[in-house]
Design brief:
Layout lengths: L1 H47 L3 H16 L2 H19 L10 H27 L2 H9 L4 H31 L11 H12 L2 H35 L1
Helix pairs in contact: 1-2, 1-4, 1-6, 1-7, 1-8, 2-4, 3-4, 4-6, 5-6, 6-8, 7-8
Amino acid sequence: MKGDKSVVQIITNYGGLLVRAMGQTLLLALCGLFFACILGVIFGILSVVKNKVCNVIAAIFVGVVRGVPMIVLAFFVFFGIPYLFNNILNVEHDVILTALQAGTICLALNCGAYMSEIIRGGIQAVDIGQTEAARSLGLPYWRTMQRIVLPQAIRIMIPSIINQFIITLKDTSILSVIGFPELVNSAKNVQANTFKAFQTWAIVGVMYLIVITLLSQVSKALERRLDHDREK
């Protein structure tokens, strides 16, 4: 009973704070995924073009970003980039990144490396005969990619993109180290105020579980829809 009362008290007193923190978490994940998609398209295409220089550039980006722990990347972006511009490059105006800006950059880089692999796989899953047919009709490579390959590849990639969004959503918890007011950071403050660690983190776990379960169901529904469309 005492534990139940503690949970009710935490929800009553801090429920609004935790809900707003979840909103900040979703905002950060969406911002990161948006820019990650842009990076993913760029480096995904660079990895499939028939140009060794482009292939090497894409491989270096993916290898470096995936090889650096995300917490290190977060500290580097938040502290390192301003130091680079202010102390080494000596820019005219001081560069200061907010936690949201640094978090978005960090997530965009980290997620972008994985998105580029998703996009590369989606492009390669499209029948190469369609590309050859378009080229034989005189369409340039980039127009072929834009008009024929990418629209089909996107349909293949949608479930993987949603799954990557789920991973990115969970990765936002790491960004509590730079002070962004996402759910984990806010939960630490709640725990410090209430001294109820078990109850606080149980509530946070349930909040993550609800959101991620809903996103997983959306992903499965899309997969079924796409499979149904392909069977027609």
